[in-house]
């Protein structure tokens, strides 16, 4: 029984609704009995104010700029962990012991290869195919090749194996899709390399031009993936939960999550940021023109990389990424005019009344694309990088939804179309 209640008065009748509380100060009015008690539903377009579940994976406070995975601050994880370690934490709920870590890494190695029949998939896409489309469709197809996920007794089945398989194989799929797009021979995963080094090697190693794996690049990639690893009930994660709530398998649910992430208002934003910066650069750095467009209510244009549904202060991930960005540029001695454009744009936005009034600060996507560029990753692969990072979050959220025996997701609506009408036969219509 809840200690606190909310009172709702409709037509002079008072209804009592329980208030539930999370670990921190977050509270919610539990409306699960509202329809039964009152005959009314709630209307909340864009789920601005709707809690769809309780969850013990990620905590974020948008006003204070706090983000914790399983209770650990993002700053500590990004500074001290590898992506694989954080993936384990998110999926299993605890930081791994060294033994657990070895076993998880071993699973990642044994599941890194794709079934050879799947290699033909890559031949059937045009070389211009979007890597996000390849990732989404190929992840969906994984269930045909690895259906043992539903069989916990199978040595290659069960949850732990499936989680490692998804993390490992999506990295291979991402690198193969890039190799196919540039017409280079595929580079297979190496059992000797860690997660990030393996990915970079599969992307950039060539028979005539061996790729030198630089620890600075590996470290920056680990950081970026950690920062993307989960972000509670965002658009793609909610999609994964919603699809999974119908009983669809994990691969199908995550494939849908990849599609949801693709849009420029979500994971596609890192790609759109670069395109925006390139446009400003090509336009003789006419910042004012783009700021004016973004502020013009008759123009749908927005400054990509600014604003967030939940953060109303600096996105803590953006702060870490900005630091990582400066570091890697210095370490690699890279010069990119877009970094200067980004910094100047941020400076102008931070002094602009329009953006200040609406609490629009740089989000995680503002600087991430610039780092990926410095690593040599092409722009159309940026959303795929986001998807690789988000994989542990999707897996953990899907599993939590299953363990909570969540009902099938099924929002309601308020119908505003025609009232019932008399049918008119075709011959009588004019
Ligand atoms: N540029 C200009 N104006 C903006 C921007 C922006 N980037 N973002 C929000 N606004 C304005 C809106 O026009 C609105 O103004 P109004 O109150 O005068 O009507 C106000 O700020 C509030 O914006 P909403 O659209 O209501 O905020 P919402 O929470 O629905 O949207 C979103 C959040 C989608 C992230 C939005 O800020 C946006 O479109 N940003 C650019 C795209 C982007 O960077 N997406 C990546 C987000 S991070 C992620 O998914 C990993």
Strand content: 5-15%
Percent of residues in helices comes to 40-55%
What's the CATH H-level superfamily name of the largest domain?
Citrate Synthase, domain 1
Mean pLDDT: 94
CATH topology of the largest domain: Citrate Synthase, domain 1
Bound molecules: acetyl coenzyme *A
- Give, in order, the helices and strands: EEEHEEEHHHHHHHHHHHHHHHHH
Task: Identify low-pLDDT runs.
Answer: none
Q: Tell me the distance between the termini.
A: 61 Å
Radius of gyration: 24 Å
Main sheet, how many strands, which sense, barrel? 3 strands, antiparallel
| Count of discrete alpha- or pi-helical segments spanning 4 or more residues | 18
What's the CATH first level of the largest domain? Mainly Alpha
CATH architecture tag of the largest domain: Orthogonal Bundle
Structure notes:
α6 (131-145) runs antiparallel to α11, α9 (215-227) packs antiparallel against α17 (365-375) and α10 (235-245) packs across α18. 52% of the residues lie in helices and 7% in strands. The radius of gyration is 24 Å and the shape is globular. It has helices spanning 34-38, 74-80, 83-92, 98-110, 116-124, 131-145, 158-182, 195-204, 215-227, 235-245, 250-261, 269-282, 287-295, 316-332, 337-350, 353-357, 365-375, 382-403, and strands at residues 4-10, 13-21, 27-29, 58-61, 66-69, 72-73. It is built from 18 helices and six strands. The protein is mainly alpha-helical. It has three domains: 5-66, Single Sheet (Rubrerythrin, domain 2), CATH 2.20.28; 72-265 and 394-403, Citrate Synthase, domain 1; 269-375, Cytochrome p450-Terp, domain 2 (Orthogonal Bundle), CATH 1.10.230.10. Acetyl coenzyme *A is lined by residues 265-266, 269, 294, 302-309, 358, 360, 363-365.
């Amino acid at each position: 029984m809840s200690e606190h209640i909310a009172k709702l008065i409709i037509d002079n009748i008072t209804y009592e609704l329980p208030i539930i509380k999370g670990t921190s100060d977050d509270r919610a009015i539990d409306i699960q009995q509202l329809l039964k008690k009152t005959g009314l539903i709630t209307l909340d377009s864009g789920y601005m104010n709707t809690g769809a579940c309780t969850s013990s994976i990620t905590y974020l406070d948008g006003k204070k700029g706090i983000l914790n995975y399983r209770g650990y601050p993002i700053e500590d994880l990004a500074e001290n962990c590898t992506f694989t370690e954080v993936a384990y934490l998110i999926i299993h709920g605890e930081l791994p012991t060294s033994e657990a870590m070895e076993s998880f890494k071993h699973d990642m190695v044994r599941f890194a290869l794709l079934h050879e029949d799947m290699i033909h998939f890559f031949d059937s896409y045009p070389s211009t195919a979007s890597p996000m489309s390849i990732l989404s469709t190929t992840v969906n197809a994984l269930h045909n090749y690895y259906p043992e996920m539903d069989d916990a007794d199978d040595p290659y089945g069960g949850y732990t194996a499936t989680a490692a398989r998804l993390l490992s194989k999506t990295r291979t799929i991402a690198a193969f899709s890039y190799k196919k797009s540039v017409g280079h021979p595929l580079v297979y995963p190496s059992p000797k390399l860690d997660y990030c080094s393996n990915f970079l090697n599969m992307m950039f190693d060539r028979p005539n031009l061996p790729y030198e794996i630089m620890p600075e690049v590996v470290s920056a990639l680990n950081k970026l993936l950690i920062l993307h690893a989960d972000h509670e009930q965002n658009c793609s994660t909610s999609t994964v939960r919603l699809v999974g709530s119908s009983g669809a398998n994990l691969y199908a649910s995550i494939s849908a999550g990849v599609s949801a992430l693709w849009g420029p208002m979500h994971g596609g934003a890192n790609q759109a940021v670069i395109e925006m910066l390139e446009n400003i650069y090509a336009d003789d750095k006419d910042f004012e023109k783009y700021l004016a467009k973004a502020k013009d209510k008759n123009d749908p244009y927005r400054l990509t990389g600014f604003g967030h549904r939940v953060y109303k202060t600096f996105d803590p991930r953006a702060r870490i990424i900005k630091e990582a960005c400066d570091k890697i540029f210095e370490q690699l001695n890279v010069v990119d005019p877009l970094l200067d454009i980004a910094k100047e744009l941020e400076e102008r936005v931070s002094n602009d009344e329009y953006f200040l009034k609406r609490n629009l600060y740089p989000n995680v996507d503002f600087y991430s694309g610039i780092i990926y560029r410095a690593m040599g990753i092409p722009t159309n692969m940026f959303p795929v990088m986001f998807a690789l990072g988000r994989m542990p979050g999707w897996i953990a959220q899907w599993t939590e939804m299953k363990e909570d025996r969540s009902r099938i997701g099924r929002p309601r609506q308020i119908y505003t179309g025609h009232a019932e009408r008399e049918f008119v036969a075709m011959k009588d219509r004019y």
